[in-house]
Design goal:
This protein has four helices and 34 strands. By secondary structure, the chain is mainly beta. A hairpin with a 5-residue loop joins strand 4 and strand 5 (82-88).
């Protein structure tokens, strides 16, 4: 039994290796949108006004020549070379080694109005034609005149069309054409004014009034260049509340960088790569670099945010009742390493003079004044406290004062209600 299981395991491993090899051997090219510079396009001469699809290695074209005052047709090969000169009135695709053409009659110079149905071989030689009353034979190199009906039957015999190995289909967007694979991945960008189906590994395209032969990029998908991307550091330690830039760069010139954070609550990042540390914790900042013709590259920056110590700021008193013209002092508990600043919202009611961690208040007119204080220290969170000043006139209504004090009392924390300020 054990031996049977061992044999099965070995067989499974060998089969797995074979399948792996098979998948690697026949793996589809990696889907990505190519840039125009990566496309292999043979641009044809300007004289062509129509170009047909390739069939059996040749494509019918129509254009002007010096020998004719009207447009005539011939054939080109996949390299864009004119292998059968332009002198037919019309030319159609090759089938089973022959092509149907409308050849000019040779009776007179205006005989192109009464063309002769003919068949040619791949050298452009006429091998069969249908005589007419006015045109006994067509203009061209006649090497034979096989039975026209039999030749026509051969031409119309269905031929076996092999499926393209790497199928691409035309796609339109905003009036421009490109090509996508079977999974609708855009391979050729939307840059063409016209785009034919692929045939025999090439497709006929038109851009800015000129026809071209596009070779199927999937048959020889170019390997994208890799962007070299550098950042200031792949590991950053930032204090809470501070900012630091990624400083992403590349030697490839103009590169598109996008940024994202795995946890924006710990550290966020903007479109310019500025990281803002918000609270203690760790997260990953991802940097994606992209450029046409290059493989996109992703960089990860591991960010650790150090939380800051807190300052316990106390302002005494936190509530003051003063008369117009009266002065009173206040103090704080900050030390020499800390800095105290104030924002007096009601300068017309009370005047403030700050001296280090203490200050002097001067009542100016009746009203309720609010002063916000901030204590700062390097490496610490900023701390905030408030001082309320109620300025009364020299003669005042006791009932109004009672109401103001009652309203203020409701805003005082329970743990602060036994302080000296309240007792006063």
């Amino acid at each position: 039994m054990k031996r049977t299981i061992s044999i099965l395991l070995v067989f499974a491993l060998l089969l797995g290796n074979f399948l792996t090899f098979d998948l690697q051997l026949y793996a589809e090219p990696k889907a990505r949108t190519l840039s125009e510079n990566e496309l292999d396009i043979i641009w044809l001469k300007d004289k062509y006004i129509e170009v047909g699809n390739f069939s059996e290695g040749l494509a019918a074209v129509k254009g002007g020549t010096k020998s004719y005052s009207w447009y005539v047709s011939g054939y080109i090969n996949p390299e864009g070379q004119e292998v059968i000169e332009l002198h037919f009135t019309n030319a159609y695709e090759f089938r089973n080694g022959i092509a149907k053409v409308d050849a000019d009659g040779s009776a007179d110079m205006m005989s192109h109005y009464q063309f002769i149905e003919s068949f040619i071989d791949k050298n452009g030689n006429i091998i069969s034609y249908k005589k007419t009353e006015h045109n006994p034979y067509p203009y061209g190199n006649i090497v034979a005149n096989y039975d026209f009906e039999e030749t026509n039957k051969k031409y119309n015999t269905p031929k076996i069309i092999e499926k393209e190995q790497y199928l691409l289909k035309p796609m339109n967007s905003g009036g421009k054409w490109g090509y996508a694979d079977e999974n609708n991945n855009l391979i050729v960008p939307y840059i063409f004014d016209e785009a034919h189906d692929f045939s025999e590994g090439v497709a006929i395209v038109k851009k800015d009034g000129r026809w071209g032969i596009l070779k199927n990029p999937l048959e020889n998908m170019p390997e994208p260049k890799k962007l070299d991307v550098a950042v200031s550091s792949e590991h950053m330690t930032i204090d809470e509340g501070k900012s630091q830039n990624v400083n992403a760069s590349s030697s490839e010139g103009a590169v598109n960088f996008t940024y994202s954070s795995s946890d924006p609550y710990v550290a966020s990042v903007d479109n310019q790569g500025n990281i803002k540390a918000k609270r203690s914790g760790t997260c990953v900042i991802s940097v994606m670099a992209s450029k046409d013709g290059f493989e996109s590259v992703s960089k990860k920056i591991y960010v650790e945010v150090h939380g800051l110590k807190s300052i316990n700021l106390i302002i005494e008193p936190s509530v003051l009742i003063m008369r117009e013209g009266e002065s009173k002092n206040f103090v704080s508990n900050i030390n020499e390493a800390e800095t105290l600043s104030a924002d007096n919202h009601d300068k017309d009611i009370v005047d403030l003079k700050l001296h280090g961690g203490s200050g002097l208040l001067q009542a100016k007119k009746k009203g309720l004044g609010e002063i916000d204080f901030k204590a700062s220290r390097e490496g610490y969170k900023d701390a905030y406290a408030n001082l309320s000043v109620l300025v009364l006139g020299n003669h005042y209504d006791a009932l109004n004062v009672s109401r103001d004090l009652s309203a203020k009392w409701s805003t005082i924390k329970d743990e602060d209600k036994d302080t000296r300020v309240i007792r006063e």
